[in-house]
Amino acid sequence: MKEIRRITSELKPSLTAANKRARVEYALMHLERSSLTSQGGINPTFRADMDVVHIDEKWFYRTRKTQNMYLSHREEAPHRECKHKNHIQKIRFLSAMARPRYDAQGNCVFDGKIGVWAYTEWVQAKKKSQNRLRGAWELKPCDKVDREKSREYLVKYVLPAIKEKWPESDR
């Protein structure tokens, strides 16, 4: 008698020849030039890339429909509610980080964390509610993030943070 077994089948991207070529070119771009032309054969090594800042954007839901929690016997489960489960607000974050730096003794002199910023904007309330008056300023997540908004955040937040936090020795 055959057993029934559980498997997980992952969907893998179908790469075209152009995609594969672009991946190889990207990898070659990060190799040390001197290691490719060394004596005694090819011994490729990757560059340290200590002067590269990685920037990433990510959407997050403000809350989940179902959320697992671990409570002690003395705690009550929190009351969570929203207007409609299918209209949970999303917020977008921008993060920047680089490679960490260590001194000769192995102590961390720069952890590589530059910053995380939420795409938000101050808007005036259109209606009066029990929490605020009409026209009061409130902080809301941006509905759309386009090229201009991304550029604004790079110039206003990311570049000053890099200048402030980057190690003096590598400037």
TrEMBL record:
InterPro entries linked to this entry: RNaseH_sf
Gene3D superfamilies assigned to the protein according to its UniProt record, in alphabetical order: Ribonuclease H-like superfamily/Ribonuclease H
An example Gene Ontology molecular-function term: nucleic acid binding
The protein's name in its UniProt record: Uncharacterized protein
Organism lineage string: Eukaryota, Viridiplantae, Streptophyta, Embryophyta, Tracheophyta
